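Proteins fold reproducibly. Look at a sample protein:
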Amino acid sequence: MTSPGSGGTPVVGVLALQGDVREHLIALATADAVAREVRRPEELAEVDGLVIPGGESTTISKLAHLFGLMEPLRARVRDGMPVYGTCAGLIMLADKILDPRSGQETVGGIDMIVRRNAFGRQNESFEAAVDVRGVEGDPVEGVFIRAPWVESVGASVEVLAEHDGHIVAVRQGSALATSFHPELTGDHRLHALFVDMVREKAAAGSL
């Protein structure tokens, strides 16, 4: 476990193997975190929390193995490092994928079963207003791109949001996941929620 950056500002990494890394870095910086790209185990060791971005979950899985990150990621998540997965990142945090591709693995950390590409193909992408528990104010504008949904959750998982009867946002302890991409809208309230989770975890660890 690392300690927060100078002045108590948390250091939050973005897994920079594939996906919309830049947008997450901007959103995290706006939410008053020190944002860093993470590609190597030594970089992972230096952050207080991690965002796993959207992209292609099978590719992210393979690249995590290639860069020697899969086991360190699993270990840090098991140890309670705050982690936030969006879209493919949600799949990466699932304990089980309903329809995995050959050789696809996950980091795990959230007791849920997910379905890949559940909302349709790329040309069926859409935006929708989503009421997310814990986010004050207007609904969050969710961007759904080949988005998964959560088929079922265990007793320790809190459902934060649903869309069309399907679970699209969950939290279990220090792990947060959404089916959609909040980083693409300019609304950084979910990133601010996650940064607060990182601060709370760091404060608890310093007691």
Notes: The chain is about 30% helix and 30% strand. The radius of gyration is 15 Å. Residues 116 and 181 are 15 Å apart (CA to CA).
